[in-house]
Every structure is written in C-alpha cells, then in structure tokens.
Amino acid sequence: xxxxxxxxxxxxxxxxxxxxxxxxxxxxxxxxxxxxxxxxxxxxxxxxxxxxxxxxxxxxxxxxxxxxxxxxxxxxxxxxxxxxxxxxxxxxxxxxxxxxxxxxxxxxxxxxxxxxxxxxxxxxxxxxxxxxxxxxxxxxxxxxxxxxxxxxxxxxxxxxxxxxxxxxxxxxxxxxxxxxxxxxxxxxxxxxxxxxxxxxxxxxxxxxxxxxxxxxxxxxxxxxxxxxxxxxxxxxxxxxxxxxxxxxxxxxxxxxxxxxxxxxxxxxxxxxxxxxxxxxxxxxxxxxxxxxxxxxxxxxxxxx
Length: 304
Ligand SMILES: NC(=O)c1ccc[n+]([C@@H]2O[C@H](COP(=O)([O-])OP(=O)(O)OC[C@H]3O[C@@H](n4cnc5c(N)ncnc54)[C@H](OP(=O)(O)O)[C@@H]3O)[C@@H](O)[C@H]2O)c1
Prior knowledge:
By secondary structure, this protein is α/β, with parallel strands linked by helices. 49% of the residues lie in helices and 12% in strands. It has helices at 15-26, 38-41, 71-82, 99-111, 125-129, 141-153, 166-194, 199-208, 214-225, 234-250, 256-270, 281-288, and strands at 7-11, 30-34, 50-51, 63-66, 90-93, 115-118, 121-122, 134-138, 158-162. It has a six-stranded parallel beta sheet with strand order 3-2-1-4-5-6, with helices on both faces. Helix 3 links the parallel strand 4 (63-66) and strand 5. Helix 7 (166-194) packs across helix 12. The longest helix has 29 residues, at 166-194. The two termini are 25 Å apart. 41% of the residues are buried. The protein binds NADP nicotinamide-adenine-dinucleotide phosphate. NADP nicotinamide-adenine-dinucleotide phosphate (NAP) binds at residues 12-17, 35-37, 40, 67-69, 73, 76-77, 95-96, 121, 124, 231-232, 236.
C-alpha cells in the first residue's frame, strides 16, 4: 500500500498515460482517471482505479497528473479542469511540450493558486511496465517533494533540475538525441546488412559494445524482426525535433544533426508512413539503399 494518501486524478490514458496510471493503481493509490475515449481507460478499473465520465470531476482531487499529446491538447484539458468550482492543489504535467507552453500553463495555474510541476518522462509503455520509466522535474521544490513518492511508484525515479520550465528543455534535448540515435542506428544496421551480415548478428555485437544502451537493446527486436507495433509515432517524434530546433533558434545554438534528422523523418511522414512505430525509419533507410527487408524471425531479447 502507498505510504501517501493524497487523492489522485489522471488525465489521458493513451499508450503512456495508461501504463503510468496502471502503476499507481496497482500500488494501491486512490486514483480517478479520465480519458477522452473512455473505453481506453476502462480496463484500469480492474486494478482499482475509478474511471470518471467528466473531466471536471477530477477538480476535487489533490494532485492531478496530465499525459496527453501536444501543448494544444494540454491547454484544452487543463482549461476544462480549471473551469470547475473546486481546484486541485497541484497539477503534474508529464506530456512533452515546449518551454513557452509550459510557462503559460504555470501562469494560468498560479492565477488559480494551483501548484505546478513540469514532469516529462523518458521511456515507452514497455519501459513503464518494466519499472524503468524516469522523470525530469522542475517547479517549486516543496511541490516536488510532495509528488516524488508517486513519481517513484511509476518507475525508476526522478531528477529534480530546478525551478520553472527547466525540465522541458531537458526532455526536448533527450528526444532530439532519441531522433538522431534511431536514425543513426537505422543507417548503420542497413549498412551492415548490405555488407552481408544479418541484422541480429550486427546488433548483438553493438548491444554488447560500449555503444550499446538500454535504448539500442530495446529497439533490437523491432529492427531484427520488423515488428513496428507503435510505441511512439513518427509525428510525435517530429513534434519533439521541432521543439528542439525552435529552442536552438531561440538560444542561437546550431543543431545540424537534429535538422537533417527532422528532414528524413519528414520524408517518411510525407510518404504516408505515419501509423507505425518511429523505428520504421529502418524501412525508409532500406528503401533509399535499394534493399528489400525481410523479418529475420530470430528470438532476440529487449534487455528490459
Ligand atoms: N510513446 C512514447 O514512447 C513516449 C515517451 C515519452 C514521452 N511521450 C510523450 O507523452 C505524450 C503522450 O504520448 P503517447 O505515446 O501516450 O500518445 P497517445 O498514445 O497518442 O496518447 C495521447 C493521449 O492524449 C489524449 N488526447 C490527445 N489530444 C487530446 C485532447 N485534445 N483532449 C483530450 N485528450 C486528448 C488521447 O486521448 P484519446 O485516447 O481519446 O485519443 C490519449 O489519451 C506525448 O506528449 C509524447 O510526446 C511519449
């Protein structure tokens, strides 16, 4: 059972939000969940979560977590939350959004005397299930200390980076790296295959090497067996690369690798490759290299 007893609210039961709320519910927290498409949230009731019909019902919870898509969506749901006569004590916003959007939210919530933490995350739904999700958090330290036990229940812990919107820029930097690394991983995997070696053999070596990481390991089954079941969409990755490039322009930082990766991703999106995982960059790279890919049907671990 949790050591804390705040009443929690949860907005957004998409791929990430569902898995995160599930961990809180399984840990025994008192959590009420709202999702625009209610059926996606319904299975959380099995673990003790209460599914609410109206978003405004979450306004009487102590701490409300939010995990939707873009800043526009965050703004929309939080405006509805704040339209109710009661207000939560704190909002913990976990979606990947811009610094400017986050600052605007802070102002809005301040007007309503609601504490606010920017708390974006690293990891996909599988990573959450494995208990390895991490948070980067900014905002008032006292608010962080109140929210921290719940963040801990959702994964492998959080890093507090300071006041204001600092966590947003940390997350944007992280996802720029995600984009650049997946593109590089796809390029070299196709290069290795075209030179004559099976993808699984190359990736096994890479994963054991100093260049291997939790990320290269958990993407290996997709790259070997061409299972592109979506974990993160190309459009969501494009949003994050755009946030990185905008921040680079604002702060006068050249970002040549982010820029070219954004264009490669755009080519893929322009060709209609939008519904599968962002690691379909492998297919785009194979096509550009004149290589027809087949699943290797080899059992490879994801390292999680
Ligand atoms: N997937 C990853 O690996 C990953 C990792 C780290 C961070 N992120 C970030 O986490 C956030 C969520 O990503 P995801 O992969 O979970 O996306 P997703 O599966 O597409 O889920 C999006 C969620 O937002 C809700 N939503 C979107 N627009 C809304 C609106 N206008 N009003 C109300 N609800 C709305 C959706 O409701 P419906 O169910 O009704 O559509 C759904 O619950 C994004 O900011 C993403 O960049 C994702």
